[in-house]
Amino acid sequence: MAKIRLFIDHPLVAGQAVPLDAGQSHYLSGVMRLRQGDAVAVFNGRDGEWQASLQEAGKRGGSLIVLAQTAPQQDPPDLWLIFAPIKKARTDFIVEKAAEMGAARILPVQTDHTNSDRIRQDRLQAHAIEAAEQCGGTFVPPVADLAPLSRLLDGWDPARRILWADESRAGPAQTLAGLPPGPWAILIGPEGGFSAGERARLSRLPFVTPVSLGPRILRADTAAVAALALWQAALGDWR
Amino acid sequence: MAKIRLFIDHPLVAGQAVPLDAGQSHYLSGVMRLRQGDAVAVFNGRDGEWQASLQEAGKRGGSLIVLAQTAPQQDPPDLWLIFAPIKKARTDFIVEKAAEMGAARILPVQTDHTNSDRIRQDRLQAHAIEAAEQCGGTFVPPVADLAPLSRLLDGWDPARRILWADESRAGPAQTLAGLPPGPWAILIGPEGGFSAGERARLSRLPFVTPVSLGPRILRADTAAVAALALWQAALGDWR
């Protein structure tokens, strides 16, 4: 049976109690049927993974006692994922997959062909937390609020390169083996692709590297996982 | 606006009519609002892509006139995907993504830790067709019926190597750059992982190469896309 892992947004110190909110308390006692003294693995995104034991679980909340650190903090490489939100289920999947694949930050952007003008940042952040709990990681990528792509590019630090999954560039994928190390971001377009204006601007920016993801047109969620996999294998923590 | 692409399981010959079933007919006239003479791109998985025009679309079906071939048939590399079905939505996603990523054949298998003992092969095949229509491909990977992994391995042709995404092998991913070309299959385990017996057998088989997909534990659908991306970039049609 897989061990239960819980993200707790609280400092983790051996011998100290940490609070459980009502949802976590219900999950541990009502869903997973844990009893007082049962083991739970906890992490807060900063201090690695800790062994804890259930102290109390009631309807309004509960508490755990933190015992000992079981794994050091492991942060992902400095890779961001920029994507244009699409249909709800697929947007959720992109955030979940970005967390599993080791993105350090997730930035939803509005593009010319993006229909949605708002996201539920709190819900997407909860998906990132759930993915971190499930994938054994100790890091939770922050999900930024929706911002226009043009504004993001206006204020972009050129020291961070952008790997642009350019869906118009069908054909053999570029190898990522020759890319320079350092901070990167992967940019995935919306289902309708980028507009001509966006394409022209992206093509001119010196810190943007366009890349093809093969001869078929990938959906945004597929493209996100594929690009993250190639980058992680070439430059990230899959090496 | 993206052009409308339709899979038609019928020989495609210039100047000849091909039938539309009731669903296709409703999609073209009712959903996409096409009228007689409007253009549709069609493919049958064997003869490339053809330009066609709508001849008739009624409630019980309709027909297209095939005009001229617009793209040659393009088959994916000889890569199969073997996976253990999981929850419905994620199983659908795996099939969709395998088709987008260029798998040539999709084989759902029952493993010791697979809960489902049946799949809707027809529904999964429909997902593969829809993905091919959407991704601009001319090939539709056949989805096999559910079979026990043990029986699949009993009759396995050792000339086809298996890339085994071994979730217990956390750590740096092996590079796939050194793998020999030729027919391959990628094997993705169920959410609970493979059993000890399955692991022992897979480890002994000379045609099985275990591979790690990084330090985090990926969900089966994420692992499928990531492994397909690495293989396509190293040995497939992303080179």
UniProtKB/TrEMBL annotation, chains A, B:
Residues 20-64 form the Ribosomal RNA small subunit methyltransferase E PUA-like domain. It catalyses: uridine(1498) in 16S rRNA + S-adenosyl-L-methionine = N(3)-methyluridine(1498) in 16S rRNA + S-adenosyl-L-homocysteine + H(+). One of its GO terms (molecular function) is rRNA (uridine-N3-)-methyltransferase activity. It is found in: Cytoplasm. Its main location: cytoplasm. It is an enzyme of class 2 (transferase). One of its GO terms (cellular component) is cytoplasm. Its EC number is 2.1.1.193. Keywords: Cytoplasm, Methyltransferase, rRNA processing, S-adenosyl-L-methionine, Transferase. Residues 76-232 form the Ribosomal RNA small subunit methyltransferase E methyltransferase domain. One of its GO terms (biological process) is rRNA base methylation. SUPFAM superfamilies: alpha/beta knot (SSF75217), PUA domain-like (SSF88697). Specifically methylates the N3 position of the uracil ring of uridine 1498 (m3U1498) in 16S rRNA. Acts on the fully assembled 30S ribosomal subunit. Belongs to the RNA methyltransferase RsmE family. This is Ribosomal RNA small subunit methyltransferase E. It comes from Paracoccus hibiscisoli.
